[in-house]
Write a structure and sequence with these properties.
With 187 residues, the chain is α/β, with parallel strands linked by helices. Helix content is 29%, strand content 30%. The protein folds into two domains: 139 residues, Ribonuclease E inhibitor RraA/RraA-like (Glucose Oxidase, domain 1), CATH 3.50.30; 35 residues. The strands form two sheets. Strands 1, 2, 3, 4, 5, 6, 9 and 10 form an eight-stranded mixed sheet that branches. The protein has a two-stranded antiparallel sheet with strand order 7-8.
């Protein structure tokens, strides 16, 4: 699970999609052509993708805001996950695009941060994320499922959910927690 500080920008947001990792580092240089990497990353997104940013701890600038959310959504992306700051939170909430981030900042990246590479493995929130890994996020947090394990995890999750639904129905019908445990073996 990605670090618990990475939270949805509003309760109720959910996403499931393929990771498109993006690496960000701090800088104090102002290039002649600013925002080149910052624009290239969302422009490379495809339907079903999740922009997944690793942001250098020294970065205080927001890497993602309203414009990039609209751009990502236009590319068919299903959300963004950042272990760093975002901005334009009100606008992104209104847009409804699922964004999960560790903080908020009013600063843009010019002279503060730059995207150095995308579509390579990164460590986001303490977890290795590779291109194509499955990201699942909701109010409880963000989980990374390595691409090679997705099929097995889907089977295990489906079985667990069936048991949890059965356990919930039994509890709601008045069964004791011990009876439910003996029948379903889930909690």
């Amino acid at each position: 699970m990605i670090a618990a500080v990475v939270r949805p920008i509003r309760p109720g947001l959910r996403l499931v999609g393929r990771a498109r990792p993006i690496e960000v580092r701090a800088t104090d240089a102002i290039p002649e052509e600013p925002y080149v990497g910052e624009m290239a990353a969302p422009a490379a997104l495809e339907p079903g993708d999740v922009a997944c940013y690793h942001v250098d701890a020294a970065v205080e600038a927001a890497l993602f805001g309203e414009l990039f959310a609209v751009a990502a959504q236009g590319q068919g992306a299903v959300g963004a996950v950042l272990d760093g700051p975002v901005r334009d939170v009100r606008q992104m909430r209104e847009l409804g695009f699922p964004v999960f981030a560790s903080s908020v900042s009013p600063y843009d990246t010019r002279g503060r941060a730059e995207v150095v590479v995308h579509d390579v493995p990164v460590t986001c929130g303490g977890v290795l994320v590779s291109p194509g890994d499955l990201l699942v996020a909701d109010d409880d947090g963000v989980v990374v499922v390595p691409a090679a394990r997705v099929a097995n995890v889907v089977v295990a999750v489906t079985e667990k959910l069936a048991g949890e639904h059965g356990a919930l129905a039994d509890l709601q019908s008045g069964s004791s927690v011990h009876e439910v445990w003996e029948r379903w073996r889930v909690f």
